[in-house]
Every structure is written in structure tokens, then in C-alpha cells.
Specification:
Oligomer: single chain
Number of helices: 9
CATH class of the largest domain: Alpha Beta
Helix content: 25-40%
Number of strands: 12
Order of helices and strands: HHHEEEEEHEHEHEEHHEHEE
Amino acid sequence: MERIRQAVLQHVTASSVRLTPQHLEKTVRETCGLDKSRARDVLKDLVARGKLEYTYEFGSTYLVPSFNQPVRISSHVVITPPGHRYRPAPGDVVIQIKPGAAFGDGRHPSTRLSLKAIDFFLKEVRPGWLNRTCSVLDIGTGSGILAIAAVRLGVAKGLAIDMDPCAIAEAGENIARNHLAGRLVVSDHKLETINSSFSLVIANLRYPSLINVYTRMMRLTDIGGGVVLSGFRLHERDDLTALYTAKGFKCLWAAAELDWAAALLKKISS
């Protein structure tokens, strides 16, 4: 049964669409060879264990991964609420995020996609940078989760900015909770006032904002540095990446989840 539970969790996590209880029950029956009663028991057990939870949206009920317990997001990143014990595997980065009013606790696809892009860039594209002085800028940091992930993955220092006082306060608490107060600064600096350039720039923003900040991204990103864009819809991806790759950037990675999309780009010219 444990094998079946893990298979169901993996199916829910990997799904590109939200799954209703009825759809998931049918999938469990067909793929695991269970009758209707046992398939329902598996789903009830996963909810009772805190692995899955019900969510209600647009008149429909869905089963989604629960973030009230540790959840693996990428090859190296695991998110856990404060107070939960988790035994990390070798190479794991465990990030404690307290759910609050600020955006970014892992439940939204754009956050998960951003974390996967950050992980890929730092561990696969630029692992050598982690032995040097490198920096990250997180634009619209929310809870601070993306900047925290970058620094915990090995970036030397970072700046996280947001205009929302609530986000600044909660990001500051999460930075302290992850013991990064000496390496990661959160502030209300406006983007146009920042004169430094960074090894990695993260922007989990909506499509119009990502279009508007393009010229500043050119100035803020080191040659060879990475830009993580997320917060836009899948149908907007081609136009957005075309703008960035027309001059100065190369797309290294792109992914989508539940009609949300993200892209990782490398700056190749000034």
C-alpha cells in the first residue's frame, strides 16, 4: 500500500491539470488495479496523513498536495512549515516557510516552477559559481521563498525587494527563520534605484510587468548570469521569451504547470 500511496502522490504532483477526487479515484483504480472502495480508502488515507488536501475553486473540488507537511519541490529543494521534522537526503536544501498573507508558500504553480528553475540554474548550469562570490536579486519577493532558496542553494548574498510592507515583514521573518539574516537583505527599494548587477535575477510577476522590466533586466544581470521569469500564463510564454531572446538572452529551460509557465534565460550579450 505504501508503494501505491507514493505513486498517487507522484501522479498528483506531476499532473499538469487539477485533479478532482472522482478523476483521481478512477486513475487509482485503473493504474493500481484496485476496486472502487479500496481506491477511495487510499485517497482518504492520504488526506488523513496530511499528504493531500481538498481545495475548492470555481465551483469544483480538487485534491492537491498539502503544504502542511514537508513537500519536495525539485531535485534539491524541500519546503516545510516551521516545527516539522524532516530528515534531508544528501544535497537537500530544506526551506522553512511560515504561511502568511504574503505570496509564496509553495502552493501556487508559479512558485514551484520558479524553484525548479533556480535549482536547475545553480546546480546544473552554473554550479561553479557557488564557489565564488555570486549574488541574487528577487523582484517582488513576497514571502522571500525564492531568494531564500537561491542563497540556501549556495549563492553568496542576495537582495529581495517588495513594495508591500506586509511582504517585507514576512520575508524578513522567513529569512531569519532560515538563518540567512547575514546574507540576504529585504527592502522596499524601487527597482529603478538599484545600480548593481547580479548573477541571478528572479521575477515572479505577471506578464505585463515582465514585459515592462525587460530593459532593466539587461542592466541588472551579469554576462553569463541567469534570469528566472514566472507568473505568466502558458499562452503568453512565446511572446515573452521572444522579447528576451531577440537581444541579449538565451532560453535554457521552460516548463508549465496548470496553465502557468516559467522560463530560465542566460544573458549572453550586453
